[in-house]
Design a protein that fits this description.
The chain is mainly α. The protein is about 60% helix and about 5% strand. The chain contains eight helices and two strands. The N and C termini lie far apart (about 50 Å).
Amino acid sequence: RSWVSLSQIPIPAQQAIVAAEDARFMDHWGIDVWAIGDALDDESSRPRGASTITMQTVKNVFLWPGRSYIRKIIEAAMAPIAGVIWGKRRTLEMYLNVVEWGDGIYGIEEASKTYFRHSASSLTVTEAAALAAILPNPRKLSPQRMSHATRKRFERVLREWEGTKTPTTYVSVRARKRETRGRS
């Protein structure tokens, strides 16, 4: 693994991945109760997940892979604590560096080098959206050979990425608001 700081990952790439995995990342405290409600109300034959970036990071750093209710309960209990201790910037940085992007490919730097032959610092929004599109099943999906379902997810990510807040964009928005207030 090669660790990269959040500041080395282009903001559009951060936004694309947040849009795909946890669009309300900046608005919750580690657990997205709206996503849980939506998942419980979903009557489709395919169950949807409601894991947040914080929950996934907790799982990847502290817990075991696989699906079990016990792991999910522990994950849900730890996520708010981790969110407070780490904060949004650190949580997103950790997530991007520990998440699996393919069989044996961990971290955004390795994924970028493997799939696009350059560093994560050079990721375009299109490349980041392609990476984000495979996250539901990175061992079976590829950003280079997209199935119809993966292509649809990729296109949705591209539609939604621009308005997504990340810790980096959130800080800059708050700073601009302070500057504007100081001028009036």
